[in-house]
Amino acid sequence: MAGRRPRLVLLCGLPGAGKTTVARRLERELSAVRLCPDEWLVELGFDLFDSGARDRVERRLWRHAQDLLVSGAVVILENGFWQRGERDEMRLRARALGVEVELRHLDVPMAELERRIALRNQEPGSVVLTTELLGECRSQFEAPTPAELDLFDPPLS
Fold this sequence. Notes:
Blueprint: E1 7-12, H1 19-29, E2 33-35, H2 37-43, H3 51-70, E3 74-80, H4 84-96, E4 100-105, H5 110-121, H6 131-140, H7 146-149
Parallel strand pairs: 1-3, 1-4, 2-3
Helix pairs in contact: 2-3
């Protein structure tokens, strides 16, 4: 895309919210690079719930994202960004690189998340996520407020 600026797209949402579906669409539409920690963890043979491995992979993907952003790319991070502090940190780091940053919050009702997770749990090779674990995830999730969303750039598409 001629004349486009580097941009970081953060996808915020709980398991089953559609982050990967949205990221894959944006990857095509924006000629972006999509970085998904869950896919990397699985590919490297780690347990998705291994917090130490997740932290290392997410830090490595951020270093890779920075290199891509500096080179002018559009980068999509599918980390989920459940906490306001994570989102603030990524926004400020990206702004320090001089790039635009957008936050896409995928707000899906709990009943729909449960339905999607139940379907995904039936897929061969999927990591089973129980309703109880989804509830725990939700209890840790801080949804972005309108004031927080105003701190980000508007979506490209």
